[in-house]
Amino acid sequence: MTTRETILAELEDRFREVPVGKTHLSVRYESAPRIARVGACLARYEWDTRMEAIKTLLDFERDHSDEFALEFDVLPLDAVVDENFAEA
Question: Which helix (H) or strand (E) is 35 found in, with range?
């Protein structure tokens, strides 16, 4: 069953394998329209790390395209002042 927690756990596992440095992931899942919204905040927000994060998210989207739609943003972690902002 798809839940916010299962999506977050899988994304955390995928991001552990990608050399992007410290990452904060924010996930919101809406089961009725089957849409997952993901925010990936990167401590090392550089071209290469941003592209690796995007590739990871696109691979995740492709792997789950028959289950739900995915919307995502990749942001610099230092732009997020506190976790309440990241979870909004």
Answer: strand 35-42
Closest to 25 measured CA to CA, from 42, 13, 11, 40: 40
Ranges of H-type helices in the chain: 4-16, 47-63, 83-87
pLDDT tens for residues 45-88? 999 999 999 999 999 999 999 999 999 999 998 866 555 555 55
d(CA 40, CA 25): 5
Beta carbons within 8 Å of 31's beta carbon, 6+ residues apart: 2
Distance CA 19, CA 32 (A): 34
Query: Phi, psi (5° rounding) for residue 56?
Result: -60, -45
Cβ neighbours of 14 (radius 10 Å):
16
Residue 9 DSSP SS3: helix
